[in-house]
Design brief:
alpha+beta, 2 domains, two-stranded antiparallel sheet, about 15% strand
Length: about 280
């Protein structure tokens, strides 16, 4: 039984006619998605962080948190994940759940809505108040890539650090410290010593994204560690900035296994930029 059937059959509280209508429209969307080969598109692979396997054929997502996938096989099967994601958009809002799937996966929903031209009467769009408040607080206009130079007193900082500043509307040189910054880092729980080095090299720590005021990072890297900060303004359009931030919202509660030499802070920030422009292929 396809993954999308599981969601449709579980729509408790719907009338038989509503379930049948949802099922029919879902089948139509799935069929159109396959006809347009959406599961093979670079946009979908960027949103799911799929990368080619090294030995066997196929792809595998770099995300290691199960709650990032709607399909049990979603980590390695883009087609099954696309079907299950479409099916999840038809689910009934449940106050006990974290969020409606349309609000958990806002970037996926936006891309699939554009690619398949969703009918709002057949697939009602959910209001995502938490995301709207968060996005409004960021008030984004453009993005700046920030590189903090190496800190010799800390081996974990021998490559420096990279973060993404979210520049707000009306921001100028005098107020840029009040912007927010997106940061990816390993959650090492202040561990140090040999175990810290081993876990950092071999993926023993979860890496997570966070968003915090930029002035905190300037204080940490510039004032405390006396590290140089280099800021590079990116020429992304408003639509591209919006795609990055929508995907950043999707990554809020998930993690990647952190690898010091490759899947590190710079690598995963590049994967964010690929969501804005999949043709960049930066992580390659």
């Amino acid at each position: 039984m396809p993954c999308w059937w599981i969601v449709v059959l579980g729509l408790a509280g719907y009338s038989a006619g509503s379930v049948a209508a949802d099922q029919t429209y879902l089948q139509e969307l799935v069929q159109r998605a396959h006809e347009h080969r959406l599961a093979d598109r670079p946009e979908w692979h960027a949103l799911l962080h799929y990368k080619p396997r090294l030995i066997i054929p196929g792809v595998k997502s770099l995300v290691d948190a199960h709650n990032f996938f709607n399909s049990p096989s979603g980590k390695t099967d883009p087609r099954a994940e696309l079907e299950a994601t479409l099916a999840s958009f038809f689910s009934i809002a449940n106050a006990e759940e974290r969020e409606h799937p349309q609000c958990v996966f806002v970037a996926r929903y936006a891309w699939l809505k554009q690619a398949l031209s969703f009918d709002g009467k057949k697939l009602p769009e959910q209001r995502c108040l938490r995301f709207e408040r968060w996005y409004s607080r960021l008030n984004p206009r453009q993005l700046s890539l920030v590189f903090a130079s190496a800190y010799l007193n800390n081996p974990a900082s021998m490559f420096g650090h990279t973060l993404l500043r979210i520049d707000a509307e009306g921001q100028d040189e005098g107020t840029r410290l009040l912007a927010y910054a997106a940061n990816y880092a390993a959650n090492a729980n202040q561990e140090r010593g040999l175990s810290f080095a081993i876990n950092g090299v071999f993926g023993g720590y979860p890496g997570r994204f966070s968003v915090a005021p930029y002035y905190r990072k300037v204080k940490e890297y510039g004032d405390i560690d006396n590290r140089d900060l280099w800021e590079y303004q990116l020429n992304f359009s408003r639509e591209e900035v919006e795609r990055v931030l929508k995907h950043l919202w999707e990554l809020w509660l998930v993690y990647f296994d952190y690898f010091f030499f490759d899947e590190n802070c710079s690598y995963h920030l590049l994967s964010l930029l690929e969501v804005a422009r999949p043709g960049l292929r930066l992580t390659g």
